[in-house]
From TrEMBL:
<protein>
    <recommendedName>
        <fullName>SET domain-containing protein</fullName>
    </recommendedName>
</protein>
<dbReference type="InterPro" id="IPR001214">
    <property type="entry name" value="SET_dom"/>
</dbReference>
<dbReference type="Pfam" id="PF00856">
    <property type="entry name" value="SET"/>
</dbReference>
<dbReference type="InterPro" id="IPR046341">
    <property type="entry name" value="SET_dom_sf"/>
</dbReference>
<dbReference type="InterPro" id="IPR011990">
    <property type="entry name" value="TPR-like_helical_dom_sf"/>
</dbReference>
<feature type="domain" description="SET">
    <location>
        <begin position="96"/>
        <end position="284"/>
    </location>
</feature>
Length: 653
């Protein structure tokens, strides 16, 4: 019976922050999302050297080796791809479930005590989901499609011991409950993978002490020497029950470190962990406020998180900030007394508005209209009349806090949309220097949004240390964005106008002599473990160095963007802690005509050449600091893309 037994994992020894807790674990099953079936290898997930021009219903491999390592693939998958009902948009969950059943010995395929091969299926809970008939319908329909595909494959010869419909449903629920996303090194989600109990028995916390990384392709051999440093714990049942109800725990975790194809997962500590302490990871985006996390965890896994962060009363500073909106001019007493009603309504509308603008950009790809919509809502908020459809005397306005999670989502999209606009412009008219300067404007603003995002996350990371992976990623993105800007051809527009720009041919000229970031960064690049994991020390070195540069370069980056002008500094948000946020001014964002001529020579500002040099230096610092944080949470192997290495000119390091 489901619910009798809860598994978790705890540390078998003391661990420092930034240590591997498991060796690279191979998946039990994995599958590409449908969108990548024609472009990526179904075994190692690498891009295919020569993708087929026409759709095909077979699975594709990059090499004979990958093709021969695909014995675990269920041939029913091909039938599923041919015959899937059109309502099933993506079959990766179903194919992973078919592969899982295929890969297990017959004895472990059946559903016992709500588990298959020791992994929780959650079937009873997921199917009992009240109020989400659509979700339940999708599980039933998916299991039916799996059954039909197996039948097409086996005909009358169907295996007598084959899984019944309940087991197929359970296998699908197991995938929904246990699978993790597999991303490539640009952050695209290529598919999913399900791992064995050593990973899948790790519970969730919104303030976790561990994180995981997935290696594509297999990690270097040195990683494989790491040991498994966690042990299973069973709650609400005696060990004997587990042994008889599922199978022996030691059996289940023993053979996971074996030669096998597919993306490997490694769990890593992001806090100091004591022997016996439960090890937890995040199942959801930690940069969301409590209500959003809880709703996501409930709809996907059917549990209510009771971690330290969720149980804090009053809510933690980070959660408060991520959900704060301001309601300016709530003068009338009826409006004041209904404040909660109006704010809840406003937040729903603001969420829909931001989500729609982002979804439209991702599907239709109109970056200009997306920038306008997002900057309008960030600057102006929602007027009461937009909420209620009627006017009142004093129009209240509901605005997102600049560190509200929707604002952070908007900054991510704005950084991307401005970058795309700049690239489109350069591609269209590389010869026209007017367009080059306009492209520079767009690229500056893209870099400014990246920087704002990194600074905002950094501020929150100071109060919630488990945000380390987000901080690392955003600092790396900001660094890449600034270095791409500094190295961009758009600066040639100035040279044509006779204005000098910096000579960036030698990185060493721009390396800071005041901080040890470069030393730490070199250690990461040269595959040595960073020596010093004293984040506070490194962090304050970084801030000391960049505070100066920020003052010199921020105005240049944001020139012409009215929304960004309200931020005096993208890194120092300390004013938020001391001042009740009351909304930023009503500004109308627009892009000025190419900003740089008017910027050049403005009193108190730096010259174009200096701005260019500072942008480069700033980018180097952001990348070094982000790289340092990433080395703690991902280890020294994985986080730097080839692109980052090349823009940093690593041979000089
Ligand atoms: C990947 S499994 C984790 C291992 C699981 N506890 C087990 O017994 O196999 C995910 C499931 O564990 C449970 N779970 C994970 N984290 C939890 C938490 N913080 N509180 C309550 N249940 C949790 C939920 O049932 C969830 O669907």
């Amino acid at each position: 019976m489901e619910g009798e037994m809860e598994m978790s994992m705890s540390a078998s020894e003391d661990m420092e922050m930034g240590e591997d807790i498991t060796p690279p674990l191979p998946p039990l099953a994995y599958s590409l999302h449908d969108a990548f079936l024609l472009s990526h290898c179904s075994s190692c997930f690498s891009p295919l050297p020569s993708p087929p021009l026409l759709p095909t219903n077979s699975l594709l491999y990059c090499s004979p080796r990958c093709s021969s390592s695909s014995l675990h693939v269920s041939t029913a998958e091909l039938h599923l791809l041919q015959s899937r009902p059109s309502a099933i948009a993506d079959t990766s969950d179903l194919r992973a479930a078919l592969r899982l059943l295929q890969s297990l010995p017959a004895a472990s395929r059946s559903l016992r005590a709500g588990r298959i091969a020791g992994l929780l299926t959650n079937r009873d809970k997921l199917l009992a989901t009240t109020g989400d008939e659509e979700f339940v319908g999708r599980i039933r329909e998916g299991a039916a499609a799996m059954a039909a595909a197996r039948k097409m494959r086996d005909g009358d010869e169907a295996e007598a011991w084959g899984p019944d419909d309940v087991a197929l449903e359970a296998a699908l629920c197991l995938v929904l409950t246990n699978a993790v996303e597999v991303q490539d090194n640009t952050g695209r989600t290529l598919g999913i993978a399900v791992y064995g109990p050593s990973f899948c028995w790790i519970n969730h916390s919104c303030s976790p002490n561990a994180c995981y990384r997935i290696s594509l392709p297999s990690p270097p051999a040195c990683c494989a020497q790491a040991r498994l440093r966690i042990v299973p714990c069973a709650r609400h049942c005696r060990e004997a029950q587990i042994e008889s109800g599922v199978c022996s725990i030691s059996e289940l975790t023993k053979d996971e470190v074996c030669e096998n194809s597919g993306p490997r997962i490694v769990v890593r500590s992001i806090k100091r962990i004591k022997k016996g302490e439960e090890v937890t990871v995040a199942y959801t985006d930690l940069l969301q406020p409590k209500a959003v996390r809880q709703s996501e965890l409930w709809s996907k896994y059917q549990f209510i998180c009771c971690c330290r962060r969720c149980n804090a009363s009053p809510v933690t500073y980070v959660d408060h900030t991520l959900q704060e909106i301001s309601a300016a001019t709530l003068h009338s007493s009826s409006l004041r007394s209904n404040h909660k009603f109006y704010s809840d309504n406003a937040i729903r509308r603001l969420t829909d508005y931001v989500d729609d603008a982002i979804t439209e950009y991702l599907s239709v790809g109109d970056p200009e209209s997306c920038c306008k919509k997002l900057e309008d809502i960030l600057s102006q908020g929602l007027l009461y009349k937009q909420l209620e459809g009627r006017e009142v005397k004093s129009q209240p306005t509901f605005k997102l806090h600049p560190l509200h999670y929707l604002s952070l989502n908007a900054y991510t999209t704005l950084a991307s949309a401005y970058r795309v606009r700049a690239s489109d412009l350069v591609a269209l008219s590389s010869e026209m220097d007017g367009h080059l300067l306009e492209a520079l404007d767009l690229r500056r603003i893209s870099a400014a949004y990246s920087l704002l995002l990194a600074g905002a996350t950094h501020h929150l990371f100071h109060s919630e240390s488990s945000l380390i992976a987000s901080a690392a990623n955003f600092w790396i993105s900001a660094g890449e964005s600034l270095l791409t800007l500094a190295r961009s051809s758009v600066w040639s527009g100035f040279v044509k106008r006779g204005l000098p720009v910096a000579n960036l041919s030698s990185l060493s000229k721009y390396i800071c002599s005041k901080c040890s970031l470069m030393e730490n960064f070199k250690a990461i690049l040269h595959h040595r473990q960073p020596q010093n994991t004293d984040i506070e020390g490194i962090s304050s070195e970084f801030l000391d160095c960049v505070t100066n540069i920020t003052q010199k370069v921020w105005n240049f980056l944001i020139h012409g963007c009215q929304y960004l002008r309200v931020f005096k500094d993208p890194i120092d948000f300390s004013w938020l802690e001391t001042m009740k946020y009351s909304g930023i001014g009503n500004v109308q964002p627009h892009l000025s005509s190419p900003a740089v001529d008017s910027y050049h020579g403005t009193e108190g500002s730096v010259s174009i050449c200096e701005a260019h040099m500072y942008i480069f230096q700033f980018g180097v610092h952001c990348l070094q600091y982000g790289g340092y944080l990433a080395s703690i949470c991902y280890g020294r192997h994985s986080h730097l893309t080839d692109h980052t290495r090349s823009i940093l000119d690593c041979e000089e390091c």
